[in-house]
Amino acid sequence: MVKPEVLSPAGDRESFDAALSFGADAVYLAGKQFGMRTASKNFSPEELKYACDKAHELHKRVYLTCNTLPRNADIPAMPEFLRNAADCGVDAFIIADLGVFEMAKKVAPDVERHVSTQGGIINYESALAWYNMGAKRVVLAREMRLDEIAEMRAKIPKELEIECFVHGAMCVSFSGRCLISSFMTGRDANRGDCAQPCRWKYHLMEETREGEFFRSRRPTAVHISTTPAICA
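Above: the chain sequence. Below: its structure as tokens.
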């Protein structure tokens, strides 16, 4: 039986240090751009260099999230961002967008490329396609069942690693691909700024009964913290 890698998120230097102290084999985190958790403090270039150096001293790894779906205006800043991260010593980029994946291959070829859960991978053919493009690891959609993961493991090359969430928040949409936040608040969920309106409490009003509200009796969703792990 292969021992899985325990991977922990870190939104700032304090949580990064805590993750390593409590036994994480690797940590994933974001820089000041292109990460899906803009509410966190995240890491400046100097902090990222510190994180990589400290992790490597302890024989642990750092994965940088570049998993937003960037718009045209975001693209010019991406090559320098990836190069600087590679210079800091990150072990892998976690990427959702195909264009960013190909860009990382060109500008930072020595850094592993992992496909984010935002990629919505739910079958072995999709995993194989990413592997053939150079992915070292696929982070599976959180909607997958254990038996589906086992079937995928059996039908993909052993060199392609599988990462899956041990527990975490489920999205009202599929793997976080949603426009509700953008529509209601102007905050783009696909660029790390989701306002989570799907978790707000609502009252229902029927069209012909204006002013009569059917009150919600239960919360619309349950949120729990996110900690993924790797299935070899």
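The longest helix spans residues 45-57.
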